[in-house]
């Protein structure tokens, strides 16, 4: 991915706080890959080798009549052959694509659907495929084999403001954590963190921390209910495995 200055993890987090995937295609904007646990959910794709470069395309709020073929709809940022993207909603001729840069920052936008080759359907991941330390700019999720055979133990820590020197200086960094042990279902894992241990995702009180994970190697996608820490703390992000 090359070019552009409008991308960063902050835009993704704000999109999640506003309601992940809400009316994504209806309002003509592409802000993320959509909600986990909703239908088929996000999937992987690759920019085709035959393409020289594939520009991101503005949504409705960026310019009237976009996304569309008008050159004025094209963004400065673009993808290059071989880039792996996470695909979400679609509109005629376009697909919402999220790209993760080397620093972990994420850029989402519409791209021409005929420039993207969907990744082959992968077999169900093994427990080993899940395990390791997964990191994003202000989040870490560690996954290890659980005590009960067939389960995984998940422990995560997140902050809000740790990358802001002024908030660090003022001691205004908010923190959160999540912990649970449960069995994945294919490439999905979900649970609620109860007072006395791990609960099914739909159980517990409305204020309990709930976490969904989707494994799309080389990425781990996470979605919570904004109840897993202090104000603005969230585990919603795209993670890459940094340690086995």
Largest sheet: 9 strands, antiparallel
> What share of residues are in beta strands?
35-45%
CATH topology of the largest domain: Lipocalin
The CATH architecture of the largest domain: Beta Barrel
Helical/strand content category: mainly beta
Count of discrete domains: 2
Low-pLDDT runs: 4-26
Number of continuous helical runs: 3
- The whole-angstrom Rg is 18 Å
**Helix-strand pattern, N to C?**
HEEEEEEEHEEEHEEEEEE
Helix content range of the residues, please?
under 10%
| Distance, first to last CA | 26 Å
- Going across the biggest sheet, name each strand in turn: 11-10-9-8-16-15-14-12-13
What's the overall average pLDDT, rounded?
A: 89
How many strand elements?
A: 16
Give the overall silhouette. Answer: globular
**At the first level of CATH, what is the class of the largest domain?**
Mainly Beta
List its salient traits.
nine-stranded antiparallel sheet; 244 residues; single chain; globular; Lipocalin; 3 helices; five-stranded antiparallel sheet; mainly beta
Summarize this, please?
With 244 residues, the chain is mainly beta.
Q: How would you describe this protein?
A:
The protein is mainly β and 244 residues long. It has helices spanning 9-17, 127-130, 165-170; strands at residues 43-47, 54-57, 74-79, 84-91, 94-100, 106-112, 116-118, 132-136, 139-145, 152-160, 174-182, 188-194, 197-199, 209-216, 219-224, 237-243. It has 2 domains: 9-118, no CATH class; 127-243, Lipocalin (Beta Barrel). It is 8% helix and 41% strand. The chain has a 9-stranded antiparallel beta sheet.
């Amino acid at each position: 991915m090359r070019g552009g200055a409008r991308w960063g993890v902050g835009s993704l987090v704000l999109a999640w706080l506003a309601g992940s995937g809400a009316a994504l295609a209806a309002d003509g904007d592409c802000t993320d890959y959509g909600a986990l646990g909703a239908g088929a959910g996000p999937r992987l794709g690759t920019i085709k080798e035959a393409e020289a470069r594939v520009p991101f395309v503005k949504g409705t709020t960026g310019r009237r009549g976009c996304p569309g073929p008008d050159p004025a709809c094209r963004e400065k940022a673009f993808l290059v052959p071989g880039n792996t993207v996470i695909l979400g909603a679609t509109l005629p001729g376009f697909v919402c694509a999220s790209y993760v840069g080397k620093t972990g920052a994420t850029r989402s936008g519409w791209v021409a659907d005929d420039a993207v080759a969907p990744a082959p359907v992968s077999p169900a991941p093994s427990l080993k495929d899940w395990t390791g330390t997964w990191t994003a700019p202000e989040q870490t999720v560690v996954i290890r084999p659980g005590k009960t055979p067939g389960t995984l133990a998940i422990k995560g820590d997140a902050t809000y403001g740790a990358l802001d020197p002024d908030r660090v200086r003022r001691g205004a960094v908010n923190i959160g954590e999540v912990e649970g042990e449960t069995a994945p279902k294919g490439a999905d894992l979900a649970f609620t963190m109860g007072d006395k241990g791990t609960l099914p995702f739909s159980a517990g009180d409305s204020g309990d921390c709930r976490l969904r994970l989707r494994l799309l190697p080389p990425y781990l996608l996470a979605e919570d209910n904004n109840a897993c820490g202090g104000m603005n703390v969230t585990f919603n992000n795209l993670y890459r495995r940094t340690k086995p």
